[in-house]
């Protein structure tokens, strides 16, 4: 058998099932065959002994040695027969357990590998499953992953629509003094919400049952590792004096989240132009010692902004040093601004992640926001002190200077509706001992209000952080520590409830993407969809036609490009049909994101891991 390969075809193995009567007959035949085989072995054994005894006097010393050898071989043969019997029982047990796992739908590459290694160990023959293990290791197709996530979002969108329409009817019932009708509608809303929760849980469970979670984790790490190695290569040239550089001044007249997004914009521009980023952070408003007092340096080999020649953006390809303005003043605007994604990685990103545009930005945050040991220690201590444990929902309530200018006021009750949704959904699957919430805000009154209104929840947070986030005290060391803690805890929460009009909320969401294979659905924004300040156009493509029949609706045909302005979270999005120039509402489920896939450098100097 040496060198042979045993082939197992799972479909054939599954289809050849015996009836109960066949099994009984087979078992009886097997039992009879065993008895006959054992009897034959015993008779053969006694025959050999008798033959040896009868011929012993006729044999010389050499013949005696031969007979001893025969006896030894016979003894070994009997022993091997017993070993084969035991091995057969072991193989039957292995295959029975394997078939049970296959029938349960939980077969994956780990099960296949375990089966193969066990069989090879037992029968000492190479095993192949006809490409089954390779198929599982390769993971699902891009089309499958995109459709799976679309179904999940579709369930959410249909519930947004039904809920909003029923709320309108309930309000009419109250207005028309029909409390029974309003009560009935509320019962329907409660029941409908449970249906939505069960559907979403089933979809998540189905996603984990089909055996591709291991691939998602592996692919997420591999793709992130590739981007991080490219960034390290870019930031650490062999000779800094000859390196092409992009200089970016960190200080921008805005808050912490805005400044971090400014630094990330500079980093994306550096990657796209293949220039080492030099971040000028002297006398940074948030820390007078500069960026390196809080985070690790962006480079180990090149922090000198000087060069033979320099120019403001855009310069030329030969200009050694280019100074970059803030994104608001950038001219000309290149195609690789957010929300663009690189062509050479786009297929892998779209296959892996529900929002590849955010995943891409998250990778730059991952490299930028590598903490100094002292910063990491401070965050770890804060986490331990407040007893930060899972499960936990991160809530960010932005007030102060945002309200009335860039965002509307939202009460704590609006946030807590979605916190309750998360825990209700979780409790359908498992027991939740504590409903825990990390509450961050720039308004010191929010945390005490939440604790008073919702005694059944455990709230984590620090009022002093909220006080430090006020405009008057924003640029202090204590304020910096507070915002670092808030963003860290929000990003490490199981779910995020906030307003995407806030830079802090969006930053936490971007960092969250680096902590999971796909955290694109782990949020609820009370206002905007995700966006990046200074971004290029955010477009969608119509996948179903629609005839506008309500006031404010627009019509569209399959393939129409839509410039999306926002999702109203009621089943409708707002935007402009770029073909007809109509502006208004359209059903959210009838359009999907149109990714801006752009040619970035491919960094052939950085090997793709096998």
Automatic annotation (TrEMBL):
Major localisation: Golgi
Entry-linked CDD domains: Fut8_like, SH3_Fut8
Catalytically driven reaction(s): N(4)-{beta-D-GlcNAc-(1->2)-alpha-D-Man-(1->3)-[beta-D-GlcNAc-(1->2)-alpha-D-Man-(1->6)]-beta-D-Man-(1->4)-beta-D-GlcNAc-(1->4)-beta-D-GlcNAc}-L-asparaginyl-[protein] + GDP-beta-L-fucose = an N(4)-{beta-D-GlcNAc-(1->2)-alpha-D-Man-(1->3)-[beta-D-GlcNAc-(1->2)-alpha-D-Man-(1->6)]-beta-D-Man-(1->4)-beta-D-GlcNAc-(1->4)-[alpha-L-Fuc-(1->6)]-beta-D-GlcNAc}-L-asparaginyl-[protein] + GDP + H(+)
Membrane disposition: Single-pass type II membrane protein
GT23 domain: residues covered: 242-526
Residue segments, region Important for donor substrate binding: 398-399
Subcellular location: Golgi apparatus, Golgi stack membrane
Disulfide bonds: 240-302, 248-266, 254-258, 498-505
EC number in record: 2.4.1.68
Sequence motif SH3-binding, residues: 332-338
Membrane-crossing residue ranges in chain numbering: 35-54
Keywords: Disulfide bond, Glycosyltransferase, Golgi apparatus, Membrane, SH3 domain, Signal-anchor, Transferase, Transmembrane, Transmembrane helix
GO biological process, one term: protein N-linked glycosylation
Domain SH3: start-end pairs: 535-596
Record pathway: Protein modification; protein glycosylation
Recorded GO MF terms: glycoprotein 6-alpha-L-fucosyltransferase activity
Source species, domain of life: Eukaryota
Any Gene Ontology CC annotation: Golgi cisterna membrane
Function: Catalyzes the addition of fucose in alpha 1-6 linkage to the first GlcNAc residue, next to the peptide chains in N-glycans.
UniProt family annotation: Belongs to the glycosyltransferase 23 family.
This protein's name: Alpha-(1,6)-fucosyltransferase
Species of provenance: Daphnia magna
Gene: EOG090X03KK
